[in-house]
Write a sequence for this structure.
């Protein structure tokens, strides 16, 4: 189970990079709002990826 | 300055001087060479070069003078040149590739002012070191940790490269800053994941899910809203 959570965090990291890349691509294609949306998706995904590994105080 | 420090200082000077010369040639000298460039900009550009070349000479009188000429004088005069050129409408970078190499040279120039450790010099053998037990690393990096960090660096590199796709001048700076921010966050995230994966006492999977639940929920909500909007738009 621990290994699965580790894998999930790495997968989320990859998905965050993909979301950022999509956002930057859309910005180049003049689709600003959609670009912003994908950057927000990337930020949320990256936050989830790191939180899976280092739980905040008080969540235990 | 003792015998050990002198070769280091010389290496520092050369490592800052050579990239500085290249940066000046590509990003300062070339724009001022344009036919309609103002004379004041040319004079200031010459001043920037003089400040850079004089920095190793004045270094003999003290490090403050060296920094004053080599950093403040050189960078300040270069900035002044660009401002004067910009005010007269002269193009600062006719070729994107040349400008990119110039920017790299400025980066190397900045790094060149850092202190270098001399070969065969062991910091622990310095007479000023406080005696104590040898500090050993608490963790050893695993191969998977290095792979994750490599993945993060690769992703950050891709993001930085993608920013150059934006051709609109008004959005160019936004794309560059966004790429820089996201790449820094990616490397920071990858580093954290890589470090946390090394053997240590991890919380239980349930605690980890619980900790990430709000971020995961936000991701799902944002993606879900986006998918719903996309379906309605079709």
């Amino acid at each position: 189970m621990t290994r699965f959570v580790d894998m999930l965090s790495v997968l989320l990291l990859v998905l965050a990079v993909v979301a950022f890349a999509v956002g930057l691509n859309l910005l180049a294609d003049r689709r600003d709002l959609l670009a912003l949306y994908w950057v927000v998706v990337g930020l949320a995904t990256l936050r989830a990826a790191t939180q899976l590994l280092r739980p905040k105080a008080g969540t235990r | 300055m003792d015998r050990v420090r002198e070769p280091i200082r010389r290496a520092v000077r050369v490592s800052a001087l050579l990239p500085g010369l290249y940066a000046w040639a590509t990003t300062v000298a070339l724009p001022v060479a344009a036919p309609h460039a103002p004379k004041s900009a040319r004079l200031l550009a010459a001043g920037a070069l003089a400040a850079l070349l004089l920095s190793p000479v004045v270094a003999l009188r003290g490090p403050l003078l060296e920094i004053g000429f080599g950093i403040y004088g050189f960078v300040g005069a270069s900035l002044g040149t660009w401002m004067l050129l910009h005010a007269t409408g002269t193009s600062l970078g006719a070729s994107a590739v040349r400008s990119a190499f110039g920017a790299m040279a400025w980066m190397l120039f900045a790094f060149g002012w850092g202190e270098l450790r001399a070969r065969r010099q062991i910091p622990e053998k310095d007479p000023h070191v406080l005696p104590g037990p040898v500090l050993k690393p608490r963790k050893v990096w695993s191969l998977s940790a290095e792979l994750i960090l490599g993945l993060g660096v690769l992703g950050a590199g891709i993001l930085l490269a993608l920013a150059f796709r934006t051709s609109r001048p008004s959005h160019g700076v936004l794309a560059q800053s966004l790429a820089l921010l996201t790449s820094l966050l990616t490397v920071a995230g990858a580093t954290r994941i890589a470090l946390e994966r090394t053997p240590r006492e991890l919380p239980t999977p349930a605690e980890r899910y619980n900790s990430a639940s709000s971020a995961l929920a936000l991701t799902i909500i944002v993606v879900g809203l986006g998918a719903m909007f996309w379906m309605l738009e079709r």
